[in-house]
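Researcher: Go.
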Amino acid sequence: MEYKIIISKKDLASLTIYEALKKINFTENVHVIQERTIYTEDIDKKYPADFIIFPTKHQSESLKKTLSVHNPGNWGKAELGGKDSTLPPSNSIILKNALLELKKLNNLDYEVSGEVTHHGPNLSTPSLFIEIGSSPLQWKDEEAALIIAKTIKSIIKNPHPTNYQTAIGIGGGHYMPSFNKIIERTNISLSFICPKHNLESLNENILKQAIEKTKGYVDFLLVDWKGIGEHKEKIKKLAEKINLPLKRVDQVLK
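Model: Structure:
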């Protein structure tokens, strides 16, 4: 797999991770850019690859210490890069393996979590954001950065399982606790995840886009049934329209 790692000079965590990549001698395909990664539309045309990795900061008001992964994309209005109602390609296998590897390597008091699909950039190449959160104190944490760097190297260089079922996740909150359990405990990978706060934007067209942009085959929709509120009937009808089976997280985890 040909890969590129994009480091932003405007991102403290990105620069700290870059130094960690140097420590483990893994900088061959690193490119340093001036702009913020979420606004690097079509950077895959400048740096062609099969997969692009964006090591960056994660920022939140909670200030909790996190190591996280997610793919980019906008279910509705593009407020932080990308395009309205547009999803770039996603490799669910790499997303799953990255989260599992982060969990395996984490020996710090950081919480490891996936995040739902959000923000830019819009690319033609599958990509992954792998992040340190959630404040400047963590962004310059060299130990956390080393875990990220080792995870990046591992998912690229080491063999990992690939025989997963693939689903599109629907419902729940930003840190997707139910879907984290799915990734950890089952043979299911998730290509895109639409959280509860984006369900007003979810429609047949963007679900079809999610299927088309998933590398490989989508087996079913996986719904956090308790995390979709009043949208249950809408989700059932959408599953019928796109002709995909619908499964519930609580039933899969039984």
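Model: The chain has a mean pLDDT of 97.
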